[in-house]
Specification:
Length: 269
């Protein structure tokens, strides 16, 4: 049974163990928190949070596309390709679903502003405590000045498209990326003793991909931190298994595990 224990000095986070259950036992992730409280697009479900911590699901196509592009900027694309043969045909070319990946990368490489905001220290793992929870973060790109000091950071996101609204919200709000930036900014501040601007580098998955560098204001990030604080006690108790996870009844996990016990009347639909 998964149970959060809090930070342990003997356990050192690394690129190899960052996503393991052992790491999750000592450090919470903002992704679990977002799935706990929900967003305008994601249904919050504490049962799904615990299930995914105990039995991580296989990445879906959207996640694989994002990981493909991420690995390019990490400099680990060859390794990623070797570890995900399901993306390729027998002749070594990408399956139709994933063929857009190289087009997205090519578009990003032709965007000078995008490239500038993706130049810096990659995949920076940091830890910190906020709202009485020990957190782990991995910053896609920390932007450095000539002296080597961090002056900003960027998280890269792939999305369906950049400008369309999802349930009336931008893709950043719909998927909780503003919460991610808020926590990342705070944990980074704790480590470098300075608050720096937060950006998202976005690439769309359209037939003709679009790129953008998007700034999220500190005022919005402060609001997100306040929401994290307001929910931190219950979230921590869930991770510690002091309270039982509850099914929302709506998300894919709940639908997949539902046991029907009665016949529905059509008026209940």
């Amino acid at each position: 049974m998964f149970k959060y224990k809090g930070a342990n000095r003997k356990f050192k986070l690394s690129q190899d163990n960052y996503y393991t259950q052992k790491a999750n036992e000592h450090y919470a992730s903002i992704h679990s928190f977002i799935n706990y409280i929900g967003t305008p697009y994601i249904t919050g479900c504490s049962a799904r949070v615990i299930h995914e911590l105990e039995e991580p699901s296989e990445p879906n196509d959207a996640m694989l596309i994002g990981s493909y592009v991420d690995s390019y900027y990490e400099g680990t694309l060859d390794e990623f390709k070797a570890n995900t043969p399901q993306l390729f045909k027998k002749d070594g070319s990408l399956l139709a679903t994933f063929a857009i990946c190289n087009t997205m990368i090519e578009r990003a490489e032709n965007d000078k502003l995008f490239k500038t905001y993706m130049t810096g220290k990659k995949q920076m793992i940091l830890t910190g405590n906020f709202a009485d929870i020990d957190w782990k973060i991995k910053i896609d790109n920390a932007i450095l000045n000539k002296a080597g000091d961090i002056i900003a950071f960027t998280d890269m996101k792939t999305c369906r498209d950049i400008h369309s609204k999802i349930n009336g919200y931008s893709f950043i709000e719909a998927f909780g990326y503003d919460f991610q930036l808020a926590l990342y900014q705070e944990i980074l501040r704790q480590n470098i003793d300075k608050r720096v601007p937060a950006y998202i580098n976005a690439i769309s998955k359209e037939k003709v991909p679009e790129t953008a560098v998007i700034f999220v204001e500190d005022n919005r990030l402060d609001e997100c931190l306040e929401i994290i604080t307001n929910h931190s006690k219950d979230f921590k108790e869930l991770l510690e298994r002091k309270i039982e996870p509850q099914k929302c009844g709506i998300c894919d996990y709940c639908k997949a595990t539902r046991v029907n016990t009665k016949v529905l009347n059509y008026l209940e639909l």
